[in-house]
Amino acid sequence: MADAIETLTRKDFVSDQEVRWCPGCGDYAILAQMQRVLPEMGIAREDMVFISGIGCSSRFPYYMNTYGLHTIHGRAATVATGLKVANPDLHVWVITGDGDSLSIGGNHLLHVLRRNVDLNIILFNNAIYGLTKGQYSPTSPPGTRTYSSPMGSVEQDFNAISVALAAEATFVARSVDRNTKHMAEILKRATEHRGTSFVEIYQNCNIYNDGAWFFATQADVKDDQTVILEHGQPIIFGKDRDKGIRINGLSPEVVTLGNGVSESDLLAHDETLDNPAHAYLLSRLTHPDYPVPFGVFRCVERPIYEEQIVAQGRQAVEERGAGDLNALYHATDTWIVPEGPDAETVQEIHEELPTSNIIPDIDQEDPMAPRTALQQLLYDPISSLDLPAPECVSADTSVADAVETMRSKNMGCLLVVDKQGLLRGIFAQGDLFEKVAGRDIDLKKITIDSLMTKDPTALKTSDPIGHLLHLMSLHGFRHIPIVDPDGRPVGLASFKVMLKFTGGLFSDDISPN
Amino acid sequence: MNLNYSLHNDTVKHVDLSFYVEVQKDNRVNQVIAKMQTSQRKCALVMDQGKLIGIFTAHDIARRVIDQSEALNEPIETIMTPDPLTLKSDITLIEAIRFMSDKPHRYMPVVDAEGRVLGTLTHYAIIKYMSDHFPEEIYNLPPTPDHFASTRDGA
Ligand SMILES: Cc1ncc(C[n+]2csc(CCOP(=O)(O)OP(=O)(O)O)c2C)c(N)n1
Ligand code: SF4
Ligand SMILES: [Mg+2]
Questions:
Q1: Architecture of domain A2-233+269-299
Q2: Cis (ω within 30 of 0) for the bond into A512?
Q3: Tell me: the pLDDT tens digits for B86-102?
Q4: Contact flag A178-B37 (C-beta cutoff 8 Å)
Q5: Is the Cβ atom of A105 under 6 angstroms away from ligand 1?
Q6: Torsion, Cα of A395, A401, A407, A411 (10° steps)
Q7: Whose CA is nearest to atom 16 of ligand 1?
Q8: Are A390 and A405 in contact (CB under 8 A)?
C-alpha cells in the first residue's frame, strides 16, 4: 500500500487509450463520473483494480489509469474474488453488463453477492447486447424486437435489483447515466460500503436500444415516473412532489397527497432493514405502473468473505504449520503421462474484416443546411468563441505578485508557462480561496508553483465547444486554458465566455418546439 | 427538448440555486471564510435579522482580503459588498444569462416577490442546466476530444 496518497485529480485517472464506444453512448457518462469521484475517495491508484468481463461496458478498464483486467465473458466477479482473497488490500471494481453478468455470468454474480466479497460491482444495464450488435438480453422486456428476436422476445426479463437482493447482497443501489450528480453520490456510497456493493446503472445504448430508459431521463416526464429513495424519508415523488407510495396489504399503491392522505400514511424508506422484504418490494416498482426507484435499496453489514478466509488460513498455519504443496501433490498415487507426438502446427488464418460502416454514420448531415444555434453551441470549434487572451506567468512568481497581477488585469486566473511558453499550470482565485484564505501564509515567500493546479486539462481551438461544456458541467472547471497544437496558451475559456456566447446565440424568436 | 424554448420559458427558479451559504452580519471574516471553505461554496449572503444586506464571494477574497490579514477579525459587514443586486425569481433564464454576462457578478441572489431570498444564481448552475438538456452530446463524451476511435469495437 502506498503510505502517503498524493492528491489526485480527474486527469490522473484518464488513460491514454482511445475510447472505443460509439459517439453518444451512455458509457461515457459513467466513465466521466468514475474519474470525477475517485480522486475524492483518497485511494492510491496503485491500490485500485478494475476488472471486467466482455461487452462494450467491459472495455471500461482500458480507459481508467489504474490496474485493470479485461477478463472472460461473465467471469469478472470470479477473477475479482480471487484477486481480493490473494490481496485483500486492493480496492477492486467489477465492471459488467446486463449480458455479461445476467446471462453467461449469472451464476458467478449470485455467488459473489452472497459471499459478500469486499468489492464494487457496477452493472451497466442497457437491456441489450451492445458489443455483438443488438441481441436481446435478460433485461430486455418480453416483446422486445431485436436481431435475435425479430418477432419479439418471448422471455420473461430479470430485474437486476430483485436478483441481487435474492442473492443476499448487502449493498444494492440503482442510478442512471444521465443523472450525473446522483450517479456520483451512489458511486461514493458504493466505495464506502464494506462488502459487495452492487450498483445497477441504467445506460442508454444509442445505437441498438436507444431510449430504453427515456421514461426515467426525459426532463418533462422523469419526475413523475421515477422516485429518488432517501433513507428515513417517506417515499414521495412527482414534479410537484404531491404523490407517494402507500402499502396496502402486501402491495404498494400510488396515492396523491391531500384529501385525507398525509405523508405519515406513506411508506418510509429504510435501507438498513435486516429483512430484505422492504427493499424487494421497492425493486418491484416498475414502469409504467409505478415510479421507478433510484438510490440505495439496501445497505447492511455482514462479515466479509476474504477476511474470514484469510483468517482461517492463518489459523490453520498457526495450528498445523505451513503446508508443503509438493508433498500434497505426491501424497497419493501419481504417474507420468508419456510425451505424445508433436502437436500439429496449426495454420493461422487471418481474414480481413471491413472496418468501415460498422456503425451507422450518425454524423451525416446536409452540408448545405444552415447551422442551428444548437449545432453551434455543441459542435462549432472553440475558435468561434470570443476568448480573452490569457495572462501568463512563470511558476516561480510569488503568490503576492500573482494576486497583484490578477487584481490589476482584472483576471480570475493566471496561466503558468515554462521557458518555452508551454502550459504547465493554472492558478485561479479558487486556489486562493481553497488553499490560502484564512491561513497564516506569507504570500511574498511562497511561489504559485506549490498552489497551482499542475498540468491542467486544456483544449485546442479546433475542439468543439460541447467539450468545454462537458468539462465545465461535469467537473466544475470555471477556467479552461485553450492551447495551440504545441501546448502554448492562446486563450482562456470561462463560464462567463460560455454565458455570453449563449446569450447571443439564441434569438428571442422562438417556437415551442 | 428545445433549449431555446426552455431558456425563454423557464425562470431562474428552475436552476439549482443552492450554491451559497448564509452568514450573519456580525460573523467575523475568518468565520465566514471557514464556513465557505468547509461547505465548498464560493458565495456567502450576509443577513441581518433574516434580511439580505450584503454579499461576500471568493472573488472578493482574492481581490480584497487575501493579503490583508488584519481584515480577518473584522465583522463581515465591514468588508462585504452592501446592498447587492438581486434577481427576481420570475425572470427568464435567457434574461438572466444576458444580464449576468454583461456584469462582473458571478453570483446573484434570487428573491421572490416579497423580497425573500430563494437562493443564489451562479454561472455554474446555468451551465449545468444547459448541459442537462443534452446529456448525450455533453455528458456522454470521452475524457478528451481526440479519444474517439474511428471504428467501434466488435466481438
Ligand atoms: C464465451 C463467450 N460467449 C459469447 C460471447 C459473445 N458476446 C460478446 S459480448 C456479449 C454480450 C454483451 O452484453 P452486455 O454484457 O450487456 O454488454 P454491452 O455490450 O451491452 O455493454 C456476448 C454474448 C463471447 N465474447 N464469449
Ligand atoms: S453499441 Fe451501444 S453500448 Fe455499445 S458502445 Fe455503442 S452505444 Fe454504447
Ligand atoms: Mg448490455
A1: 3-Layer(aba) Sandwich (3.40)
A2: no
A3: 999 999 999 999 999 88
A4: no
A5: no
A6: -10
A7: A99
A8: no
A416-430 residue pLDDT tens: 999 999 999 999 999
Helix axis angle, A180-192 relative to A27-37, nearest 10°?
A: 50
pLDDT of res. B46: 97
**CATH number at A376-505:** 3.10.580.10
Ligand 1 neighbourhood includes A59 CB (under 6 angstroms): no
Cell reading at A178? 444521465
Average pLDDT, integer, range B123-139:
91
Residue of chain A whose alpha carbon sits nearest to that of B152: A20
A25 near B CB under 8 A: yes
DSSP-derived 3-state class of residue A387: coil
Give the CA dihedral A218, A223, B110, B116, nearest 10 degrees: 170
Write down the pTM of the prediction: 0.77
**A212 C-alpha to center of ligand 1: Å?**
19
Query: In sequence order, which ranges of B40-74 are alpha helices (DSSP H)?
Result: 58-60
Q: State the complex-level ipTM.
A: 0.91
- Closest chain A CA to residue B37: A434
- The single-letter DSSP state of residue A250 is T
**Who surrounds ion ligand 3 at CB < 5 A?**
A 97-99, 126
- Between chain A and chain B, how many beta carbons pairs sit less than 8 Å apart? 205
Q: pLDDT digit string (tens) for A184-234?
A: 999 999 999 999 999 999 999 999 999 999 999 998 899 999 999 999 999
Any idea where the domains of chain A sit in the sequence?
2-233+269-299, 376-505
Q: Which residue, chain included where needed, has cell 484469510?
A: A310
Q: Indicate the fold that domain B3-138 takes in CATH.
A: CBS-domain (3.10.580)
